[in-house]
Amino acid sequence: MFTFFKVKKVAEVLEEITKFPMLPEESLGLKEALGRYLAKDILAKEDLPPFSRATMDGYAVYARDTFGARESEPVILKIKGEIAMGEVPSFSLASGEAARIATGGMLPEGADAVVMLEYTEEEKGIIEVKRPVAPYENVIFKGEDFEKGTIVFPAGIKITPAVIGVLSGLGITQVEVGQRPKVGILSTGDELVLPEKELPLGKIRDINSYTLYSASLESGAIPTLYGIVPDVKEKLFVKVEKAIQENDVLLISGGSSVGTRDFTLEAISRLPEAELICHGVAVKPGKPTILGQVGSKAIFGLPGQVASALLIFYIMVRPLLLHMQGAKGEHLFLRKIMAYAARNIPSTPGREDYVRVKLSFSEKGVIALPILKKSGLISSMAEAHGFLRIPENSEGIYEGELAEVFLLP
Amino acid sequence: MFTFFKVKKVAEVLEEITKFPMLPEESLGLKEALGRYLAKDILAKEDLPPFSRATMDGYAVYARDTFGARESEPVILKIKGEIAMGEVPSFSLASGEAARIATGGMLPEGADAVVMLEYTEEEKGIIEVKRPVAPYENVIFKGEDFEKGTIVFPAGIKITPAVIGVLSGLGITQVEVGQRPKVGILSTGDELVLPEKELPLGKIRDINSYTLYSASLESGAIPTLYGIVPDVKEKLFVKVEKAIQENDVLLISGGSSVGTRDFTLEAISRLPEAELICHGVAVKPGKPTILGQVGSKAIFGLPGQVASALLIFYIMVRPLLLHMQGAKGEHLFLRKIMAYAARNIPSTPGREDYVRVKLSFSEKGVIALPILKKSGLISSMAEAHGFLRIPENSEGIYEGELAEVFLLP
Lengths: 409, 409
Description:
32% strand, Molybdenum Cofactor Biosythetic Enzyme, Chain A, 28 strands, alpha/beta, 4 domains, 7 helices, 6-stranded mixed β-sheet
């Protein structure tokens, strides 16, 4: 049905991933929208602010009137009235006049600046202005934040508290976002038992299921656990068929036994419309990763070792889950920083290497200390702050060299 | 009831914050525990791995037997049998013997290393070993990850997918975590209308409610909106009394009118057992921040301007919400990196300054570009990647100087 050993580079796989169709949109209120991704550009349907506002407590004035004002020679202005908070001024200002105004108040017609309270003195219907203000000083103009009709946010960005703030300021309380993908999670291996069960000698607990469940949840997906399948071909096929029907993405994390990976490959190939995107990725850890496409759905065969499976999750599965939800560009990836390697980290050209690191600070900046433990140990997994990336064509990173580090969420 | 104008430093307020009592614990399964904080140290109740395991496909051997082996002079070992995945070997190895084993298989008694498949050749019941292995090579020993009885994780850490992985590996599927704090959110100001309503001229939309709602949600809290209260003292008192009864933390974001801040202060002081922790913080923006304690509960008076309110949320409210949930140490704060300032940023000694920045990358490392816009504008709020901190005793950061940047979630 398809050729085997189709090894791809990480960048090639990521390119394929962004070709998967996005999920349909849904409309959410602002209380539910946090962490989702905008499915459409957002246009301002009104000016923000809706009118010119004071940004300081003081007096609305015609700026030109105050030119030349100083402590010893204050400018005298007549107080025309006071502007009540939240109301339209009932008067306009002429030259020589001023109006009391508080932060946020609406400027009366004729005023183009606000003199701060501390530079004035009020007495019997007049004020003394002791410093000049420039036109537009201490004022935010109508539409200065956003003009009606302009793009406020492009599609594909993540909805953060600040984004929600801007949307509510513009009166946009309903947004279109991509739906959350459903993710099925399946562990394979005769040696596995459920973590909640008694552990017979010779067996080990299934670590991948809960790990990938939580990582999927953190990536905005709706995960479902399909339990453990023993290394029996037909049992795997039946489970895979069911799980891919019920989900948008299926994660099979390979039992460690030699044959299991081939079973995963065969299970994918037996599905109608199956297409193999890659069988093997030029990356360490995670080389045996498989990605297949079944219609609009994706099946990943992940490494059996949990730390490797989690790495592949962060660099490939998570971008797919976010892409399906509508995320674009940098929003698909873990946040990147730069850090100085605390020691030499050798690598082999021809593949990307990802090394778990702890971060610390020195006068020089951020320092990344690789966590060097046997690859099968899981204790190092939870200690890491991020992954240091060694590019494909590099023979390694020298101590003191700057490297890219992707921060774990 | 208490003295006014009790200006504190950020560090002093943070110290007070960690004196608030933590919320009671609750017990959660691993599916629900993501993003919560461990209320107790976690001890390993068994060894991980539970037995010595192969980390490569190959042959279990007695390492000493292979010493001196080379391509031209292989060592010959007798195949004693095969170790089925997930089962206890039915035999032990003597010197001169080997057993087929796959990654994850249990080492038979007598074996202390695994020779990788690629360095062997099998024929009629024997193998040729072409390279020596050292004792313990390609093996993870019983308890090498975690020994029974040792501390796996200390109380106060955040439960990430990797932490969940380690817990499930150890058969710990139920964890004690601190409960999520309930947060009431109240906006004050005669000029405010709900974002979903028609906007009369002179009024503006309430931006703070949804912003603080989402930020609370992101900080693990359970937020409730109490709407908008006009600048009428008695109305505020009634709402505050109700909201603090129903929540652990109350956020009142000040209307911009001059009197409102005093109302908030008075509202706090009228509550029984009220204590003022600070009235004013030496920080920019956010100087007028108020923090009061009412029994085990906290009331914040936040700035009216949303970008300032959100900053104070991240540097003070969020640490309190996380502390109440059981977070400790670095887990209380936004993630910190170091970045080079893209331009001079002046500051005034005697207060901490936080400047919104966009991050980019150069050969030198991470560059922080301050977003310089009028302080009343909200468009800059959603553009920021983080906050650059200018310490209290500094007169500013020079272009090219390294500074601390706190990353927005």
